[in-house]
Specification:
Layout: H1 5-11, E1 16-19, E2 23-26, H2 29-46, H3 50-66, E3 71-72, H4 75-82, E4 91-95, H5 100-114, E5 120-124, H6 125-130, H7 135-148, E6 155-163, H8 166-171, H9 173-189, E7 194-198, H10 210-231, E8 239-243, H11 254-271, E9 280-283, H12 306-320, E10 325-327, H13 340-343, E11 348-351, H14 353-362, H15 365-378, H16 389-396, H17 405-409, H18 413-433, H19 440-446
Parallel strand pairs: 3-6, 4-5, 4-11, 5-6, 6-7, 7-8, 8-9, 9-10, 10-11
Antiparallel strand pairs: 1-2
Length: about 450
Amino acid sequence: MIKNVDELKNTLQGVVEVDGWQKIKVTNAEKLRSSVIDTLVYESVFNPSEEVKTKTRWLIRKLARSLGSGSASIQGLYSAFGQGEVSGFTVPAVNIRGITYDFARAMFRVAKRNNIGPFVFEIAKSEIGYTGQRPAEYSACVLAAAVKENYSGPVFIQGDHFQFNAKKFAQDPQKEIDTIKSLIKEAIEAEFYNIDIDSSTLVDLSKKTTDEQQRNNYELAAEMTALIRELEPKDVTISVGGEIGEVGGKNSTPEEFHAYMQGYMKTLNSKKHGAKPISKISVQTGSSHGGVPLPDGTVAQVKIDFGVLEAISKIARKEYGMAGAVQHGASTLPEELFDKFPGVGTAEIHLATGFQNLLYDVFPKDFRGTIYDYLRKNFADEKKPDMTDEQFIYKTRKKGFGPFKEQMWNLGKEWLKMADTELEKRIEFLFLKLNTKNTKDIVNKYVKV
C-alpha cells in the first residue's frame, strides 16, 4: 500500500510525469497499462489515506482524458435522437455494484470487439450507500478500466436514481432537497456528466388533477436541473433525465408525461430561463427493481407494457425534442424481450440486478455462504414473517457488496477469469439484442470527449 503522495509519485517514475499536480504527461503507455494502472486503481479504492486516494483518483481521470477516453455527456447523441437524426438502437446503462474495475473492463472489451459506441456506467443514490462507492471512487474505477483496455472514445458515467425519499421529504423538505443538491455537486466534481433526477417518489395520486399529482415531481426536477446547469463545466452540457412513474408502481400514461413536461418547462424557465431541459424520461411499464422473488428464490415473470414506451417515446421526440422513454428494472426480464426495446423507440434501458445475480452465482461457494451468514445476522429485521430464507437472501444480498468489497476484489485470478467470461457473455448478449453493434461512429459524430 502506498504510504503518502511522495511514494505515489515514485510509483509513476518512467511512466507518467506529474507537473505540480496540475498537468500530467504519459511517457510509457505500455507500462501504464500493463501494471501501473492496476496499482493506481487499487490505491484509489482501498488506500487508508484520503490524500493519496484523492490524488490517485484525480490522476486516473487525467490519464484517461490524455489517452482519449475521458468522461463525457451523452447529450449530443440524445439530441440527435430527438431531432430524428438517429434511431434503431437502445442505449444500455449498467449499474455496477461490485468488482467495478474488472466489470468495467469487460464492458470495454465487448464494446471494442463489436464497435459499440453508446453504453453507460451508472450507480444509483441507494447503491452508493450499500456498495460503499462514492462517485469519485466509481468514476476512477471506470476510467482506469478504459485506460487498461486501451479504449478510445467518450465514456458515459451516470448518476442513476438521484432519488428523493418521500418520508424524509414529508418530515423536512428542505433537508432532503439539500441532500440531493449535495450529491449532485459531488457527482459532477467526480465527472458524472449524466444525471437522472428521480422525484417521482413524490407523485401524489390522491390529488384530483394530473398536474397536482405531478407538481412536486416536476418542480423539484426543474430545480435540480437549474442547479446542474449552474455547476456543469464549461463546454459540457450534462444529460439530465426525469421520471414520471416510480418503478414498481402504477404504469405511466401520456397524460402524466404531458402534465410533467408542461409544469417542468414552466418551472425551469422561471428558475433559469433558456436552460437546457431533460433529455429523456423514465416511465413505469410493469417492471420492478430486482424483480419479484418467489418463495424458492426464483424471479416471477412480469408483463412489460411496450405500448407505454412507444407512445411516450414518440411524444418525447416529436413534441419536446427528447431522446425518448427509459426502461428501468430490466435485467431480470426474459431474454426474448430485449430486442423489442429498440423497435418501440426506447432511448435507454437500465440493467443491474441480473448482473448482481450472475456474480453471486459464480462466487466461490464458501465465500457466498459467508456473505449470506453476514446478511442473516445484520439484516434480520428486514425479513418479513411471510418471507422464506431464499426470498430474504435475494432481497438483501445487494447489501453484501459494500462490507465484502475488498474480499471480492481479491478473490484471485482464476476466479476472476471465470467471472469475466460469464460477464462478457451476458454483456455481449444484451448489448447486441439492443442493436448497438457498429454504433461507434454514430456516437463519435455527436459526442466529443
